[in-house]
Amino acid sequence: MKKVKLGEVLSLKKGKKATVLAEQTTLSQRYIQIDDLRNNNNLKFTESLNMTEALPDDILIAWDGANAGTVGYGLSGAVGSTITVLKKNERYKEKIISDYLGVFLESKSQYLRDHSTGATIPHLNKNILLDLQLELLGIEEQENIICILNTIKRLITKRKLQLDELNLLVKSRFNEMFGENKIFESIDNLFDIIDGDRSKNYPKSDELFSEEYCLFLNTKNVTKNGFSFDTKQFITKTKDKLLRKGKLERYDIVLTTRGTVGNVAYYDELIKYKHLRINSGMVILRPKTPNHNWQSKNLWKNLKL
């Protein structure tokens, strides 16, 4: 596979400081700063002249400060002083898709930060950047890579939103019960919130048995009155070992998050099963402080109210 140094592909142009306007005018253009490399939530504008300008085909990279190495692309406007514009040289304009170059640089962000200069304020090292070697793939291969990585990004974003919503759900239950008691406003100060394993190893229907090594919980097992084992399904020891997270430890609390939302159960010594796992519609609340089973028991009692 042919590789090419970025120094052959790109030329660099540093951004400039400008007078920032909160509102767009007939004479202004967008002013791009570091936050704009992540999202378009806070647009800024400038009428300053002789600015370094970025086109949608350019790559932008934060050059200075704690966020050095942050990458943005598909943007156009005047560029701030802490950002450098990477422009493709004429020879490679039709050979390298900007998004492909962008995702490559995103994968090197930490490497560039690790090799930055400056004791107080980090600055990217130009030579380190230009010495990076990019695989010169065909256009179709580049497009496939972009498509796959964009899909992964969307899934990661969706997953983060789901976890945020879950945390809000649990916190809202606390606030319902304890009002403005500050101790309970942030559950993650007291408990770890652990969800189940949703990887490719998640048990399929033909991998669930009436008798086996590990009890795999479903929503019927977690009721408003705690655990119920009228119906049970199990997974093998081999399957249990393949799953990375979601296995109960004594004094854990199980909270349902889908279907019958808000049912809770407490896994103490009275539960005879030694091996239990939650399914994808539940989370585990586990005390951050070891041996604080009283904390779990009190929480469980209050959550049942």
Automatic annotation (TrEMBL):
Pfam families for this protein: Methylase_S (PF01420)
Annotated family: Belongs to the type-I restriction system S methylase family.
Gene Ontology biological process terms, A to Z: DNA restriction-modification system
Keyword DNA-binding: yes
The keyword Chloroplast belongs to this UniProt entry's keyword annotation: no
Stored InterPro entries: Restrct_endonuc_typeI_TRD, Restrct_endonuc_typeI_TRD_sf, Type-I_RS_S_subunit
Domain Type I restriction modification DNA specificity: 2-161
GO MF assignments: DNA binding
Gene3D superfamilies in alphabetical order: DNA methylase specificity domains
Protein name: Type I restriction-modification system, S subunit, putative
PANTHER family for this protein: TYPE I RESTRICTION ENZYME MJAVIII SPECIFICITY SUBUNIT (PTHR30408:SF12), TYPE-1 RESTRICTION ENZYME ECOKI SPECIFICITY PROTEIN (PTHR30408)
Record's keyword terms, sorted: DNA-binding, Restriction system
